[in-house]
Design a protein that fits this description.
With about 200 residues, the chain is α/β, with parallel strands linked by helices. The chain folds into 2 domains: about 90 residues, Periplasmic binding protein-like II (D-Maltodextrin-Binding Protein, domain 2), CATH 3.40.190.10; about 100 residues, 3-Layer(aba) Sandwich (D-Maltodextrin-Binding Protein, domain 2), CATH 3.40.190.10. Helix content is about 30%, strand content about 25%. The protein is built from 6 helices and 8 strands. Helix 3 links the parallel strand 4 and strand 5. The radius of gyration is 18 Å and the shape is elongated. The C terminus is likely disordered.
């Protein structure tokens, strides 16, 4: 929303129509020219699309309050090698699945996964790795517990567009995102961290 606010402030003549969905359907809409540009988390690799990194969002172990991990101050990702990870259907969030598996492989294991209809809240014996904004849109019946990963891992938040798209519109969105990034110090905030996906 900060980027959208900046876009409308810098370019008041730009008319914006917003679509909100998982990254899989949004990428399909981008290819089908139903949208011009998207802001997405962990958008799957696609060499036909152009992208700018907007920021890195910290990934957390998100658990039910009854989980054995709920009282931990932090957790190493390799400690979770025996756990069942909830992932999304490939059509919903393939980039998220790709990012999660890459994080686990970097930590030395291939995760055991369970595909859910959407990214849903875990029961006590499942675990989910997500960023705070993704959890915030869930309709949960309990207060989730966010446990930091050590070392920290990150999900990429990117602007993504077709290279043959409307240049003026794309340039306006990129300028707005860059302005917000400078003001919020998004790039500086994560520059010293390593181990992100």
């Amino acid at each position: 929303m900060a980027i959208l606010d900046e876009l409308t402030a810098l370019y008041p003549d730009v008319e914006v129509e917003i679509s909100q969905d998982a990254t899989g359907p949004l990428v399909a809409d981008l290819h089908a020219r139903r949208i011009d540009i998207l802001v997405g988390a962990s958008v799957n690799t696609d060499p036909t699309l152009a992208r700018d990194l907007v920021r890195l969002d910290e990934a957390f172990l998100v658990v039910h309050p009854g989980s054995l991990y709920a009282n931990r101050q932090s957790v190493r990702l390799d400690e979770l090698r025996g756990e069942m990870f909830v992932i999304a259907r490939e059509t919903v969030a393939p980039g998220y699945n790709e990012a999660l598996i890459a994080m686990c492989v970097e930590a030395g294991f291939t995760p055991k996964t369970l595909t859910s209809p959407g990214l849903v809240a875990p029961p006590e014996h499942w675990v989910v790795i997500l960023n705070r904004p993704a959890v915030a849109i869930m309709q949960l019946e309990f207060e989730p517990v966010f446990v930091p990963l050590v070392p920290p891992r990150y999900f990429r938040i990117e602007l993504v567009w077709r290279p043959d798209g409307e240049t003026r519109l794309i340039d306006s969105c990129r300028a707005a995102a860059a302005a917000v990034g400078r003001r919020e110090r998004w790039a500086i905030r994560h520059r010293s961290h390593t181990g992100y996906t």
